[in-house]
Design goal:
48% helix, elongated
Length: 128
């Protein structure tokens, strides 16, 4: 089996250790269940949560992603549609947050796990 790159594994939401097992149990837009994270990797068995409430730190990454999204949106609106009222900015940003929240939630956890999870890639990692 060919080695999956770290970038591809992050984009696909895969385990940092084996890069095969999925971090999340359900799809991003299954709205009742998109927050469900596997406790252990389904492929290699590594524990995703190193301690209780491990993923609470991902709120900071989520905040940074949100601020980046707001700034880019405001810049695009200002550049291409100026002058517009403040209501347009608010409608655009609130709409983006509603539509992109499941993805921002997921990627903040994925980034946090890859940065602070202390899991290194092991091509031979398997559950068996």
């Amino acid at each position: 089996m060919s080695e999956k790159s770290k970038i591809v594994a992050i984009i696909q939401g895969k385990c940092p250790q084996c890069r095969e097992g999925s971090l999340f149990q359900f799809g991003a837009y299954q709205l009742g269940r998109f927050t469900k994270v596997h406790k252990n990797c389904p492929k290699c068995g590594v524990a995703f949560e190193k301690e209780p409430r491990f993923f609470d730190g991902s709120m900071y990454i989520s905040y940074a992603l949100s601020v980046g999204l707001f700034l880019i949106s405001a810049l695009i609106i200002y550049t291409f549609f100026h002058p517009v009222s403040e209501d347009i900015y608010m409608i655009a940003i609130i709409s983006e947050v509603i539509v992109l929240y499941p993805l921002m939630f997921r990627y903040s956890r994925i980034f946090y796990l890859y940065i602070f999870g202390d899991l290194k890639y092991n091509a031979n990692a398997t559950k068996d």
